[in-house]
User: Fold this.
Amino acid sequence: MLGKTEWAISDGFMSASNSGGYDSHEAVCVLNLSDKTANVAITVYFEDSEPLTGFTARCGAARTNHIRLDKIKNANGMPIPKEKPYALLVQSDVPIVVQHSRMDVTQADMTLMSTIAYTNR
Assistant:
């Protein structure tokens, strides 16, 4: 089966900018090729403060979920802060494929960046 249960994304940064009705944002794009729902846990790491935990999402069997990081809140209702560099650890109870994307609208010509996450398991 394709996928892994642990993924790392080392470059995260959400600008607080918006332009023309678009918000700068990032997403963790999940592909679940299994026949079971994936329960996803996200831990957020920072350069200068303790990690934030308690972010969760689900991805149905044979489905995708584009988890918008500007909209997700942890179990304590805290969002991922904007204008602060971070990294992510994405863990799942079933194998998934993870991709990270960033929409940056800080300039008139919008930029979309996407990259596959790193996994070793």
Notes: The mean pLDDT is 90.
